[in-house]
Amino acid sequence: MTETEARPRLYVLDTNVLMHDPTSIFRFQEHNIFLPMVALEELDRGKKGMSEVARNVRQVSRFLDDLMRDATNEEIDAGLPLPGPMNGAPSEVAEHGRLFFQTKHLPKVLPETLPGNIPDNNILGTAIALQEEYPENDVTVVSKDINLRIKAAVLGIRVEDYHNDQVLDDVTLLYSGEEELEPDFWEEHSKDIDSWQEEGRTFYRVSGPGTESWYPNQCLYMEGDNGFEAMVQHRDDNDAIIELVNDYRHERHSVWGITARNREQNFALNMLMDPETDFVSLLGTAGTGKTLLALAAGLAQTLDQNIYREIIMTRVTVPVGEDIGFLPGTEEEKMTPWMGALMDNLEVLTQTEGGEWGRAATDDLLRSRIRIHSLNFMRGRTFLNKYIILDEAQNLTPKQMKTLITRAGPGTKIVCLGNVAQIDTPYLTETTSGLTYAVDRFKGWEHSGHITLLRGERSRLADFASDTL
Fold it and tell me: What does the alpha-carbon distance between residue 421 and residue 75 come to, in Å, rounded to a whole number?
């Protein structure tokens, strides 16, 4: 390590960063990385099993093995040169840093307030020793562990969270899926509007200011006497084609007996009932109708319209990625305790006339066309002409989200439901969730749609509790 004109940075990586993102060692641009021996020991303990963490650990080990292949002791001591980003993206810098391993004992200078030989304290002690040995470097600990970051800050050690997997700087910047048009929208664009009808559908071709920021299938609305609701069907550099949406608020346009109770639910049903929209994401707090709308649209298109062969319902089991158990029972029987939302909504959708016998016959019919699967067994499968509902999608990592979506074969539609404010997965936040990742990456694709549901529609009791408690 030589002194440079500007103080170089030396990043000490915590084990959980490598477990979270195996490619993290390639994402520090021109800066150097230091791996403490205790981190390698923890990696070795975490490599067994079929969980996502174990797979990530094994991938890290393969990366390190490739970097160290044919390297001499002198080269390891001098730091192994790191290649550029591993995802094929162009590098922003011409130089890349080096990877250093702990090859000698570093005296720990931890205060007596941090007793014990635990891995976190060893990493902090290593950081302090490195700063004393290499004062020309800015030594920074990188960790996903909040408690370790707190202890580092108390000791005066530079510390950071791992931000490279962050989709957005702030979750408030997440694409909402809708935009309110200004009251003078028609006056400003009156010279550049063409309108026509095809098969009972009304279209407008709009040019002018504001249209360049629209996304495909974005929901547009205007309040007031001249209010309307439309969705962007196509957009190019000069103009956009928008279509008036169907109104599912009336009983004659109900979907499996369900009607929209607000504007966002109406937009959601338009996306869910459009066979040209292959991926739909619905965000919203509890009680906004995400699961009910998705199920109703799935049943209508599976049983009435025969667009899909069956509905597949799945969700992340908490703890994420762990085995669902070895007790007797099929995959569906083991997943049933996690599917309370499905059962509750099926009760609403099967309120048929004909008494107990009619209700039992309807239940048998629905259960024959609805399958419950665990995410643990999705890898390697291909779903053809299926309507897939992924509940609690905010608990997926971006990699798990990609694994699921790439299972879709021809004629399959995927509906992701979730609330990014309720994440149960360790080391995932609102800005790093797989659901946030999917919403942000799919917003420009013409066969995807997204809407954030804002209003709860459960009951006056639930609404009052949500507002006041």
Answer: 47
